[in-house]
Amino acid sequence: EPEVTQTPSHQVTQMGQEVILRCVPISNHLYFYWYRQILGQKVEFLVSFYNNEISEKSEIFDDQFSVERPDGSNFTLKIRSTKLEDSAMYFCASSDGTGVHEQYFGPGTRLTVT
Amino acid sequence: AQSVTQLGSHVSVSEGALVLLRCNYSSSVPPYLFWYVQYPNQGLQLLLKYTTGATLVKGINGFEAEFKKSETSFHLTKPSAHMSDAAEYFCAVSDVNGNKLVFGAGTILRVKS
Question: How confident is the model at residue A1 (pLDDT cuts 50, 70, 90)?
Answer without folding.
Answer: confident
